[in-house]
Amino acid sequence: MRISTKGRYALRLMLDLAIHNTGEYISLKDISARQGITVKYLEQIVTGLTRAGFLRSQRGNSGGYRLSRKPEDYTVGEILRAMEGSLEPIACLDDEVNLCPRSSECLTLPFWKGLSDVIRKYVDGTTLQDLVDTSEEAGADSYSI
Amino acid sequence: MRISTKGRYALRLMLDLAIHNTGEYISLKDISARQGITVKYLEQIVTGLTRAGFLRSQRGNSGGYRLSRKPEDYTVGEILRAMEGSLEPIACLDDEVNLCPRSSECLTLPFWKGLSDVIRKYVDGTTLQDLVDTSEEAGADSYSI
DNA sequence: CCAAACTCCTACTATACTGATAGGTAATGA
DNA sequence: TCATTACCTATCAGTATAGTAGGAGTTTGG
Fold it and tell me: How many A/B residue pairs have CB atoms within 8 Å?
């Protein structure tokens, strides 16, 4: 039941861009310095986010990335799904294809559906802006992000 | 974010024993036939559950397993944790040891704690008896467990 | 009493996933 | 033009997953 580093780092990257959301492009080098994640690994993560349409990129000197929407228009759920593929606790819940032949008589399936629901409600009920807000509440000075 | 087969099968095994909770010992062979899981794999799963004190076992002819408590006295959470080790979405939340050096300034940590909370509330708020009840509501005949 | 029916224990294996690192190409701005 | 940046593909060690396999010890029904 673990979120991979890609999912966790993607969230930190997006949050970093949300906090430094000036309209300018932010380089991975800068994000790397702040987040302590290598540029090379960030590249892999950012690829997924750009392909999902979450980021705009600019090549060349003084290039980088910026958010393509406002922070309040991203849910944490969609960011995590872009990296993790699925947040469902069991494959049966992903789609019809993975539905197992026992599903109609499976006594544990309703439990898993319920778990899926509480997870989905939570992650899709939290926006990137919500995370920015909690950081400001806590006092921006104490954070080095 | 997937629950492993061990966790899923453990829940099915416990639920099978809860439904056939006559006081008699139930053999893995019987459970295997009902659940479609090999006896050899069930052995591995049942070992963890027995060590956790969830089951009583009886060796030899007409031996098997039975629940050591009443179905309403098991939470699904503790059953899953016995097999999965931890249900925390990130290692930082497991214990002090795994806490990363950035934790005090980590802007995403409160989010992960919140996710951990909704998961924990759900899985520890559901008992084995709850799963038995939903099966009875749905009509016992339609289920072959 | 003994053989069948069980649990119990340890080892092994193939496959996939994770968490990276590495090297090179293409675009851009000063 | 050249330093800086995004972009692309490949590789790799380590770990976890989802089992399979073979046997040893225990109990009881016949």
Answer: 97
Whether the CB-CB separation of B3 and B84 falls below 8 Å is answered with: yes
User: Scanning every residue of chain B, which has its alpha carbon at the shortest distance from the alpha carbon of A5?
Assistant: B90
Q: Which residue has the tokens 């099966």?
A: B135
pLDDT digits (tens, 9 = 90+) for A48-61: 999 999 999 999 99
Per the CB < 8 A criterion, the answer to whether B59 and B40 are in contact is no
Question: What is the pTM for the complete model shown?
Answer: 0.93
Label the pairing between strands A55-58 and A64-67.
antiparallel
Chain A closest-CA separation from residue B63 CA (Å): 26
Residues 64-83 of chain B sitting with CB below 7 angstroms of strand C: 64-65
> Cβ atoms within 10 A of the Cβ of B44, count?
13
* A60 CA: distance to closest CA in chain B (Å): 30
> What's the distance, Cα to Cα, between the start and end of chain B in Å?
27
- B26's CB contacts (< 8 A; 6+ apart) are B16, B17, B20, B64, B65, B66
CA-to-CA distance for A67 and A76, rounded, in angstroms? 14
pLDDT tens by residue, B42-88 = 999 999 999 999 999 999 999 999 999 999 999 999 999 999 999 99
Domains of chain B (ranges plus CATH)?
A: 5-86+128-142 (1.10.10.10)
